[in-house]
Amino acid sequence: MYGNNEKKLTQREMQLTCDNIRQEFNQEIDIEHRRINIDSSKKKAVLFHYDYEGFRQMVLGANLYTIKSKELQNLAPSNEKVFNNQINRTKTEEQLQFEINLKQIQCKSFRDFRTQFQKVYQKPINEDIFIQTLNLLQAQTKENVKQIFSIDFQIQYFFQILEVLDFGLNQENGNLICFIIGFFNELLEIKDFMTQIKKFLKKSEKEQLVQFFEKLQQLLQQEFEDVQINQETLVLFQTIKSQFL
């Protein structure tokens, strides 16, 4: 069942929580961003006819970010010098930049989310749009999700999110499936949002939702048979499906 390089998952590792799925996806997104940056740097080096050393330096600097000194000073502890060359300093500039970027896309209301979402969403959906949208969703805490999808949330944005997630499901990624289930489970707790789902959907929206759940269930069953998803996740999915449809 398991290949030479595969490790059997422990019961603890198979426990589904939205937080650990967020963490895994953030790691995967970071890896993909690094790959894209390196690939872009290689192409720029070729375009400008750099020699070997110039090419090497471009690749080495592909994932370095600029950051304003004032932002560094605000984030760093007051009793430490940020601009030093000590290897054991608590945070690198890259980590600080990541924290700044994360804070910028965490939304405290639907209007905040709409502004961020409109920056990345467009048709036709491609890999870059999928990654940026997923990054936006992953950045939200449970409290952020509650604030976004309550009261004044416009339901058409949920179905645009579904379009992007549906694109991602074509990759048959078990981690994405788990994240979607965890995300939907958080939405179940938001009364205003679920009222819209149960009472105010158009026929076309209901059909889109049914098709999405059918596709998700098919992929979920495949992952379960491959021992990537546990029984607890299947039960949770059925509960979510019964509430949404």
Tell me what the structure shows.
This protein has 245 residues and is an all-alpha fold. The chain has helices spanning 18-47, 52-60, 69-75, 93-105, 110-120, 127-138, 142-148, 155-169, 174-188, 191-199, 203-225, 231-244.
Residue share in β-strands = under 5%
Low-confidence stretches: 78-89
Name the helix and strand elements from N-terminus to C-terminus, one letter apiece: HHHHHHHHHHHH
Largest sheet, if any?
Answer: none
Mean pLDDT: 78
* Strands, total number: 0
Distance between the termini: 35 Å
Shape: globular
Q: Helices and strands: which structural class?
A: mainly alpha
Structural descriptors:
245 residues; mainly alpha; 0% strand
Summary?
The protein has twelve helices and no strands. The chain is mostly helical.
Write the SSE topology.
Elements (H helix, E strand, L loop, with lengths): L17 H30 L4 H9 L8 H7 L17 H13 L4 H11 L6 H12 L3 H7 L6 H15 L4 H15 L2 H9 L3 H23 L5 H14 L1
